[in-house]
Protein: Pr5-like receptor kinase
Amino acid sequence: MTHFFKDKLGEGGYGSVFKGQLPNGGAMVAVKILNENKGNGDDFINEMASISKTFHVNLVTYLGYCVDGGRRALIYEFMPRGSLEKYIYFNKSVQEQSRLGLTVLYNIAIGLQYLHGGCPTRIIHLDIKPSNILVGHDYIPKISDFGLAKLCAASKSTVSLEGTRGTPGYMAPELQSGGVSRKADVYSYGKMLLEMAGGRKIFDVETEIYYPPWIYDRLVSNENLELYGITTPEEEQTARKMIVVGLWCVQTDPAVRPQMSEVVQMLKGSLETLPIPSRPASI
Structure:
């Protein structure tokens, strides 16, 4: 299926992903091989349990699994354009960035809204970031990599965690405490939204600028936002709306952050109706 694992698509803490093809000239697929030295198989069971309960246009489609001794693999649809990470930073073409703008972020929000309340069992993803958003031929984004996800019963507002989960830079601050809600995904989504609006990473190693408070100060003082790839007043208005919504999402207190259903409505609405939230905490 994977032609001896020759075409590697990516790698993460829980395994590597290879390009493959179903037998007899079938469809192209992505095969995630989980690391044998990571845990006792809980990551495999966790991801399979999470993704197998879902079906949505903005979630990567799970096709099946394979177990051979200690080796475990998950089979997903193949996303030919790779991850969102390839498109959102300033050194990429303006054409690609404009194509992957507000519509893409809106669709990702719709996918998260489904995970948090629309699927049979609520799911908290816990690792939302650009590299875990895959892009298809038609530029429809799909949330992927459910290895860290937690199932959350409808009767519960929070779930307990053993150990820290997520990616530094996108992790909600409450993940350090061991109990989280769906608002942790809102926080990560907000970080990604801010990156996409500004065309820059949340933390610039060279300048040591932490983007959320930096862009907040410029927004409230009406300074130049230094947005990359913005060529028209309409595009600037859209970017400003993305920034305001993103700043709401990255509030330190989870209770202040909007639900994903509210984020969807904020993205659909006009900039004039959005109040500016409190200044986010510095790094």
Q: What stands out?
A: The mean pLDDT is 84.
